[in-house]
């Protein structure tokens, strides 16, 4: 059908905690904690070096302590935090970070809190009730009747899923303004274990929050990314490839080494369905769930280092922040394109989560195009 409204990401905001994890230093302290298990120590040192991360951020200052005093490392002199301990930290630290990201997005979009009709909150690294949606509604000053939609425990793909849902809301209700807020404190779930699965997860996850405002652009707004058609797929017989379960000492994560290969094998067919015979996109906003995922998509689509630079830059500087990461990628891409003075440019965004699930959406960087220019030929399925 023809659609005269320009539905777009109108503003983006990001935030990270104050404590910075240097990858080389963290690797050194972790391998020191594994000194009684030299095989695990060697493997940890290798994966920390090869995962594409240089720095990350954490809300937990104890993760910067020496090996013998870090409660999250094996061989520590202190008892590891329980799941209850970690959830208490999550409740205390997640709200200020989410508020900071949301405030940045509202200012970037030049949207008042009174204009927000829907709030989508996204997180898989913690839980409390009344939830993040209720707390943010009160502390941001949103209307008590704002439509609150919590996305809980959906994994890394949930941030892009929230963007896709926002586009559908705005398409059906042109007056809607949707505020998406993602906050993930992944480092709270680092395990005091020498198992390879636990060490792999400890090597590249970081903490952060991101937010965006989605809605119909008005004449006095400068839309950043116009949103197009989206597609969601649950790959069959892949449920055991990515798992995240509640344990006694935080959430236990398992990531299969087969994930990049599975993505490279199955996703091109799904993306082709979305693109519907159209040309290859010029922009690629790939959720950096790991270096191997970016590598797999770079190979299958013959992408250049420039096309994958935003995803690799976010992975290098922040690690994988689960659902919050994709908006960091969009923000990094926006800054690069603005610096180059780029005009309207087509793109495709992809994010992956447990299941295996893939969320994808077409988008267009708006550049300096006017609303009238963008309204000339907008078609949605």
What's a concise summary of this model?
This protein has 381 residues and is α+β, with helices and mostly antiparallel strands. 38% of the residues lie in helices and 24% in strands.
Structure notes:
By secondary structure, this protein is an alpha+beta fold. The chain has a domain at 225-374: Thiolase/Chalcone synthase (Peroxisomal Thiolase, Chain A, domain 1), CATH 3.40.47. 38% of the residues lie in helices and 24% in strands. It contains 11 helices and 13 strands. It has helices at residues 23-33, 38-50, 83-109, 132-140, 158-172, 196-204, 259-275, 291-300, 305-318, 325-340, 371-374; strands spanning 7-15, 19-22, 55-58, 118-123, 147-152, 177-185, 207-216, 225-234, 242-247, 250-255, 283-286, 345-353, 357-365. The strands form 3 sheets. It has a 9-stranded mixed beta sheet with strand order 5-4-6-7-1-8-13-12-11, with helices on both faces. Helix 4 links the parallel strand 4 and strand 5 (147-152). Helix 2 runs parallel beside helix 6, helix 7 packs across helix 8 (291-300) and helix 9 (305-318) crosses helix 10.
């Amino acid at each position: 059908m023809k659609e005269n409204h320009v539905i777009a990401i109108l503003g983006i905001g990001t935030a990270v905690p104050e404590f910075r994890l240097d990858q080389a230093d963290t690797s050194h302290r972790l391998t020191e904690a594994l000194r009684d298990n030299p095989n695990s120590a060697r493997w940890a040192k290798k994966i920390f070096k090869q995962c594409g991360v240089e720095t990350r951020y954490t809300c937990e200052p104890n993760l910067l302590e020496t090996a013998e005093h870090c409660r999250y490392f094996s061989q520590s002199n202190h008892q590891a935090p329980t799941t209850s301990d970690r959830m208490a930290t999550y409740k205390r630290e997640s709200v200020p970070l989410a508020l900071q990201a949301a405030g940045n997005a509202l200012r970037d979009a030049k949207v008042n809190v009174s204009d927000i009709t829907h709030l989508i909150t996204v997180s898989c690294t913690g839980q409390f009730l009344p939830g993040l949606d209720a707390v943010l509604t009160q502390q941001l000053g949103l209307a008590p009747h704002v439509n609150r939609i919590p996305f809980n425990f959906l994994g890394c793909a949930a941030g892009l899923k929230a963007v896709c849902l926002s586009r559908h809301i705005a398409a059906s209700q042109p007056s809607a303004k949707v505020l998406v807020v993602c906050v993930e404190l992944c480092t709270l779930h680092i395990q005091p274990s020498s198992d390879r699965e636990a060490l792999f997860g400890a090597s590249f996850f970081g903490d952060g929050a991101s937010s965006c405002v989605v809605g119909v652009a008005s004449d006095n707004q400068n839309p950043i990314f116009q949103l197009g058609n989206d597609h969601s797929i649950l790959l069959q017989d892949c449920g055991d490839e990515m798992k995240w379960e509640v344990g006694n000492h935080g959430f236990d994560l398992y990531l299969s080494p087969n994930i990049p290969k599975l993505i490279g094998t199955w996703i091109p067919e799904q993306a082709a369905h979305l693109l519907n015979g159209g040309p290859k996109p010029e922009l690629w906003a790939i959720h950096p769930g790991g270096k191997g995922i970016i590598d797999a998509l770079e190979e299958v689509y013959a992408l250049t280092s420039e096309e994958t630079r935003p995803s690799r830059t976010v992975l290098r500087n922040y690690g994988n922040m689960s659902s919050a990461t994709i908006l960091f990628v969009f923000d990094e891409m926006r800054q690069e394109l603005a610096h180059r003075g780029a005009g309207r440019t087509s793109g495709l965004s992809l994010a992956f989560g447990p299941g295996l699930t893939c969320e994808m959406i077409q988008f267009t960087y708006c550049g300096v195009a006017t609303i009238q220019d963008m309204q000339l030929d907008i078609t949605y399925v």
